[in-house]
Structures are given as C-alpha cells and as structure tokens.
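User: structure tokens for this one?
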Amino acid sequence: MEVITLRRQELTRYQVINGTIERKISNTEAAILLGISKRQVIRVKNKIRRVDFNGVVHGNRGRRPKLGISNETKEMILSLYQNRYYGFNVTHFGEFLKEVHGIQVSRETLRKLLLISGLRTKSKSPPRHRTRRARMPRSGLLVQMDSSEHKWLEESTIWLIATIDDATGEVPYALFVDSDSTENNMRVIKRLIEKRGMPVALYTDGASHFITQRHYSYRVNLRYDDTPTQIQRALNELGVRLIIAGSPQAKGRVERLFETFQDRLLKELKLYKISSIEKANRYLHNKFLPRFNNKFSNAPKDPETAWRVLPKELNLESVFSIKEQRTVMADNTISFRNRIFQILPDKYRISFAKAKVVVEKRLDGSIHIRYKDQYLNFKEISSDEIKKIKTNTLPLEKLLTGDIFTLHQG
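Assistant:
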C-alpha cells in the first residue's frame, strides 16, 4: 500500500476541495478559502477524483529548481531598467533582457523585482461595483478578525480585538488589550483555537503583524523579503490559511460588528462604571458575548462544522511564541533581545557550538531554546556578570560554570 504524506496546507486543500465534491461548499467559496482561482479549484477537484490524495501533492515536491536568480543578476536587471529601459512594460523589458543581454527570467519574477524596488508601481484599477458576499455555508470555514481603537473605558483609549464566524455571525472570542501588537493578536487567535478549534481560514487586514510590509532599497538590499511574520508562521504551522482583505469593504461583517459593539458594549461599560481592562474583559466574556451571540448569531446553511481539532503533537504555547533562530557561539552562548544565555551540556551532547537553535519567547514571557525537536537546558547570564566578564574580574570558566545563574529548561 502506498503511503502518502501530506503537509498541513495540502491536507487543508484536500478537505476544502473534497467539500466541493460532496456539494457542501461551492467552487467560488473554495477559491476564496484557498486563495486560488475558480478554474484551479475545478482542476484540483478533477485531479482528486482521479488520484485522491495525490491530487493535492505538488508535482515539484523534492525537485530542485532548475533556474535561480542571484543577487548579482538582480542588481544587473535593476541597473539596466533604471538606466536604459525605464518605462518599458514588464513583458517588453523581459524580451530585451533575453534577446540583447542573454538574461532569462519569468515575467512574474521580473514584475515582483521591479515592484519591490519601487521602479514600477501597481497599476490603478478603475472603481468597481461591490456587492455583499454571501456567507460561508459552514461554521469554521472562515473567521474574520480585526481590531478597533476607541475610548472604550471613559477617557481611556484601548483596543478591542474581535473574531467573527463568517457563516453564523457568532463572535467566538474577543479581548480588550492595551495595544494592537503581535503578541496580543496571537493571544486572541490562540484562545479562539482553545475554545473552538482551528478554522480553515483567517481573514484579516494588511497590518504589519499579519503580513510583511516589504520595503526595498536598491543600495542596501537586493533580496526579496519573503520572511513571514510571526503570525503567518504560526498559522502555517497549524495549517490555517491567512487571507488578507483587499479593501476595507471586504471586511464588512467585522466592521459592522464594531459599529454594533461601539453602540451596545460601550453603553453597557459606562452603565456599570467599568474602568479597567481586567473588569471590561470579565464583563465582555461572562455577560456581553453570551447575550450578543444568542441574539445576533444565525444557524449556518450546512450544520456540519468545519472547525478542526488541534493535533495532539502541536503545542500552542510553542506555536504562538516569538521565534528567532540563533547560531550558538564557541563558548555555547547565544544572545537574544539584549540578553545572554549559556546552553548547558546534556546526556546526548556536550557542546552545541555552531549549532542552529530556535529561541522561543512565549506569551507568558518565558524563554525556551530548542535544537531540532529537543528543548535545551540553559542559564541566563546577568548583566552584572557580563560586566565582570568584560572587565576580567572573574575567570570566564568560573562565570559559566559557577552557581550564579538561574536554570531554565524547555
């Protein structure tokens, strides 16, 4: 029997497309959830009918790309466009690169390079007539998420981050916070998953904590900035698709939700003289949301839920943490956010010098250091001890092995 291993994104694609085969969702709805065209949905659907799970496995898996574009080539392309072919459209410029200069790149690669460099701008589309999109048929297929800065507490301006199920209008989770930060948005998504499960897709605006805001400098950096944000990375680990709204109108349901909240919730907070974030959240979770959902949520067209159970091997505390990679120094130390950590030997390995490790700063503020799938023991070197090391008042070996640090274990 052939064993097929699917990535989380491929499994999500299979589940969504299979929903169209079973006539539980439409091709258009599947296209929105997966971020592909309706025509591609039909192609994948036909492929699944022929080869089942193999229909969602990418044909290039395991293959090395035949053509890469080096930084030197990028620099040459940008220089040619700026000094010789400025104003050419992308296709025209690509033809001259190939015919005159022997440089062959795809139109899309060339378009992105010129766009990120600022040498070309996106063409403006004419105004479009917008119509209200029909609700998703199943709960958990699409969750909209947004934040609202407002004077929710008397004269205090704070943020409310809220989620709304597109199919039902239910608000599964919302939270008052002091800032619209990456960590606070992570807290909301994490708690949403703990309460309801994993949605198929999350629909948000283009804020910098959701999607990388690409800045390009011809003089400084000639590489694409394709690094995902911390939230993108976390959702990728879970197999949840992040959809970025193309306009404020596209987030109509969650925008209307905040209008209702600013009318009803604001008045109730004032009525009960609630003046702290802690008390506001207690009222929101225990009183307001249960009553709001009972009054305003609707039954979905399809009673079968699309919320998915979190796999046992996934640790949400780790998934929703700030993760950064570090290379261990020769003395088995790493630096992270102006702090120095000493990695201790274990029964499998004495030294981790030159190893690539991942530092996790979790939502509770704790630090964990991971090497591959193993969490390491470590000590933090205090600022006072760092000063002593720099002034050579204590031997380094004594500082790194003495009983002067706090032991941490992942």
